[in-house]
Amino acid sequence: xxxxKTDAFWMPFTPNRTFKxxxxxxxxxxxxxxxxxxxxxxxxxxxxxxxxxxAGHCRTEIADAIHQQAGKLDYSSIFNFGHExxxxxxxxxxxxxxxxxxxxxxxxxGSEAVESAxxxxxxxxxxxxxxxxxxxxxxxxxxHGVNFGGISVGGIAPNYQTFGQPVKANHLRHTLDIERxxxxxxxxxxxxxxxEDLERLVAFHGADQIAAVIIEPFAGAGGVILPPxxxxxxxREICDRHDLVLIFDEVITGWxxxxxxxxxxxxxxxxxxxxxxxxxxxxxxxxxxVFVQDEIYNTVMDAAPEGMVEFFHGYTYSAHPVACAAxxxxxxxxxxxxxLTRAGGDIGRHWENALHGxxxxxxxIDVRNYGLVGAIELRAPDNLKGKFGGKVSALAWEAGVxxxxxxxxxxxxxxxxxxxxxxxxxxxxxRGVIKDL
Length: 437
Ligand code: PMP
Hints:
By secondary structure, the protein is an alpha/beta fold. The chain has helices at residues 16-21, 48-51, 60-72, 84-93, 110-127, 148-153, 157-163, 178-181, 197-205, 231-241, 263-266, 294-303, 321-336, 339-342, 346-356, 388-398, 420-435, and strands at 26-30, 33-36, 42-45, 101-107, 135-139, 169-172, 210-215, 245-249, 273-276, 288-293, 364-370, 373-378, 401-402, 404-406, 409-412.
């Protein structure tokens, strides 16, 4: 390997010293494949990057749009003036959201989308005279990014142990129940009653303290935890009963992952806000968004005196023109190639069958899937419990597959363009890796 200076770059979410002792580098990518630097090996990107390169890597059309926009209007502030593309893009995005979520607030990442959504909820509660509603309900194992609001509503232990809980929140129980739901195909049958945990938290804190409930329709970074049948509907009903704002964090579940543009559409439960990022630009240029329901938008608008800023929040790069151009070109591809619904068709069924085809391996204790997402839960040796997934993911890389280790599971969310024979190739490789454990 040519001399690589690794000291300056403080890598995120990575054991820096271990990585830097033996860096694994990717040189290029195309379609569902990554090319490893130095070896030139083709690696199947079974996670679409980080659940985000939904239309596959290095789509020329998106690259061209980025290039053209950077040469035409590379940047313009959108504080007090605007550019046409931002409005046109927002207008086009909301054609894909559930009915009534017709407004978009832009940021640059999932974390910023979450932070913006939490602040919109606070602003809304104040605007309608319910300013005592300042805390949030999230869920154990929930992941909502790394900013102070997101780590507080999220349910990821190391965040608490390192940074505490800067924003007041409490958490619903998570819904992973391997004993009752092992090897479910699609949504698990057991566990709808876990939604009642929200009633417990409302009774404990009082509805007049709670600004919003935020959950991922399925928890991604928590290990692909699918909602039991009826669970999300029950959560919606309880929110309605207590007048709570419901936010779905669809940073992973959005843009075709489940077989619909959004999981809210797929599972027919409409939240009051949806956070989005990742696949929104096919991960080419950072972009985050919050989709906001009409009543929230209108209440916030009407509460401020004419001429005053209604929502004191925003980013230098909100609706960045280059990100909007990338997003427009991404939508062109999603719409033209039918990618937003593809996971719900034959390819999703093939994925399900192929994934469950590994169930005969004695090391596999659960397989869960929906659309084009899935997880294989492995029987971990005692000394590696809770971190076996990471070990197996390293072995998978050696075998030519990028899969994400979370706890003792291997998690995958391949690009939505994946073909049947590529799924077969992927499973064959994983079978070899798991069999040899
Ligand atoms: N919400 C969810 C559900 C996510 O999965 C993620 C990222 N994995 C985020 C928020 C944070 O997104 P970002 O890393 O772009 O800040």
